[in-house]
Amino acid sequence: MLYHITRNTASAVALKDIPTVDYIDLYNDLAERMRDERYHPAHYFAAQTAEGLRFFLLLLDDRESTVMISSFVPDYYSEEGMPSLTAVHPSFHVFEREMHELYGIRFNGHPWCKPLRFPWDRRDKNSTMDSYPFYKMSGSSLHEVNVGPIHAGIIEPGAFRFICNGEQVLHLEIALGYQHRGVEREMTRTQNSLRRALLGESVAGDTAVAHATAYADLVEKLSGGHVGENLVRERGVALELERIAMHIADTGALSMDIGFQLFQVACEALRTMTINTTQAWCGNRFGKGLIRPFGSFHPLTADKAAMIRSNIADIRRRYNEVRLDMKESPSLLARFEQCGVVPREEMLRIGGVGTAARASGLLRDLRSTHPFGVYTDMICHDSIVKRHGDVMARLMMRCREVLQSADYIESLLSGYEPAAAVPEPRYDVPLAADALSFSLVEGWRGEICHVALTDARGSIVKYKIKDPSLHNWLALALAVRGEGISDFPICNKSFNLSYCGHDL
User: Fold this and answer.
1) Distances, alpha carbon 9 to alpha carbons 13, 330, 372, 464, in Å
2) Which pTM value belongs to this model?
3) What is the DSSP string of 356-417?
4) What angle separates helix 229-257 from helix 208-223, to the nearest 10 degrees?
5) H or E segment to which residue 344 belongs
6) How many whole angstroms separate alpha carbon 335 and alpha carbon 351?
7) pLDDT tens-digit map of 239-262
8) How far apart are alpha carbons 178 and 180 in whole angstroms?
9) Burial letters for 183-194: b for 16+ Cβ neighbours within 10 Å, e otherwise?
10) According to the model, what pLDDT value does residue 24 have?
11) Strand 159-165 vs strand 142-147: parallel, antiparallel, or unpaired?
């Protein structure tokens, strides 16, 4: 048996129940299995254990809604090198690059095992930003354009190097990892669950609710505990509020980049109204402090539920007017349609997830394929999928999902009756020993995965986080190939990926 089979709603898995297999057997199985698009990796990482370096793979079966967990100890492969899964299935490239960077593991046949993050604990300290192996092309008509790492705005640093023929982009390479935040290490340096909850909601500031939900769910699984229906409902409302706010913000940002200030101003007003609704609920516009393990200090009262319903109904109506006006703007359509196309086949190859994948016709949506929270029984989620894979498709994905999320919130709060007493968060619950716990949450960008390993005392000794941007940065690089370099800003905005969600 190569895999332990479980589901996104199941409790933590005892380490002894996870098969330890020979790598070559796992490699051969994946080389064939991954030809079926129903499978894709949720996480793949290594951890130091008593038996040495042990690798863990979480593979998702989207058809059966199962999570397949396997592990192996590299043994002699660490010296001789391991056959690279990336060579046959490129969606593994980010995971193998990270393991090479951290542990020096050789992946034979990997097309380009360049650094992923430049973390402080990387194996080769001589590997620095100054020696980053940017791709080179030569020719008298070619030139390079460097953008960053200091951003023109106020967001995190990242280096973008374009190789162009005139105005046409031939190649874009994106180098990240300037922050060295060490979030995953901090998760294991402390056993204070409150501090970990604060770290969790800070993984990506614009996705505080989704990452906090992932952490809370993971800890609750590790404790074997369950939360009440009202708390599950509240988390679902918070997730959809966050989705609405960020999709509206991206709509406005795209409008501004092509000079449609009217649409941008309208979206800024609606985004402000959305995040102010969240602030009225919990005291923070981004939902920080709202999601905590086992309980809440900000229970959803009847008055707050009525306020949310009223505000979201107004936001939905007004945003739909903006959406219809945008679809009738010839100049907007001419700018966005057939720009920054990522075909479905390429999105599948690189392991793309979330709204970007769905805009290219690839159904990657945990709410449908690996339900959690309200999506298990309160909401039967119907994923929105576009097929053109261009800037316009990514914009329309956001437009449709805003309306859908507003309808979900109305459904969740219609007839809502607050509980007589809502439990407060708990930070002292003992965790299962020698176990692996994971949580899969569909954030507004896409698939979020948190994984934790505990030792014999029930202390978390390994914590791994995957933000959807980890997969989708390569999609942005593919989107601008063949486009004019002036199209980069709108292509970039149409993905709106996270720098800090990448640099962990």
Assistant:
1) 12, 46, 6, 19
2) 0.95
3) HHHHTT----HHHHS--GGGTTT--------SS-SHHHHHHHHHHHHHHHHHHHHHHHTT--
4) 150
5) helix 344-350
6) 27
7) 999 999 999 999 999 999 998 888
8) 6
9) bbebbeeeeebe
10) 93
11) antiparallel
Place of tokens 């973008």: 160
Which of 389, 384, 386 lies closest to 405 in space, CA to CA? 384
Radius of gyration of the chain (CA): 22
Contact yes or no for 290/296 (Cβ under 8 A): yes
DSSP 270-323: HHHHHHHHHHHHHS-TT-TTT-BTTB-SS---HHHHHHHHHHHHHHHHHHHHHH
Contact 62, 4 (CB under 8 A): no
Residue 51: CB atoms within 10 A of its CB come to: 8
Token digits of residue 321? 């007017």
How far is 123 from 100, CA to CA, in rounded Å?
8
What confidence tens digit (pLDDT) does each residue in 282-316 have?
A: 999 999 999 999 999 999 999 999 999 999 999 99
pLDDT grade for 181, boundaries at 50, 70 and 90: confident
- Bond from prior residue into 157 cis (ω within 30 degrees of 0): no
What number of other Cβ atoms are within 10 A of residue 341's Cβ? 20
Collect all residues with Cβ–Cβ distance below 8 Å to 322 and sequence separation of at least 6. 251, 263, 266, 267, 270
Query: Greatest CA span in the chain, whole angstroms?
Result: 74
Among 444, 442, 447, smallest CA distance to 496 is for 444
Query: 28-87: per-residue pLDDT in tens?
Result: 999 999 999 999 999 999 998 877 899 999 999 999 999 999 999 977 555 678 999 999
Domains of the chain, each with CATH number or no CATH: 4-116 (3.30.460.80), 183-495 (1.10.645.10)
Which residues are registered as beta bridge partners of 2?
A: none
Residues 6 or more apart whose CB falls under 8 angstroms from that of 76 comprise none
Nearest Cα to 247, choosing from 429, 420, 406, 454? 406
Phi-psi map region of 100: left, alpha, beta (phi>0 left; psi -120 to 50 alpha):
alpha
Closest CA to 179 of 129, 134, 140: 129
Instruction: State both tokens at 66.
Output: 């199962």
228: three-class secondary structure by DSSP = coil
Please give the structure tokens belonging to residue 236.
Answer: 């679902």
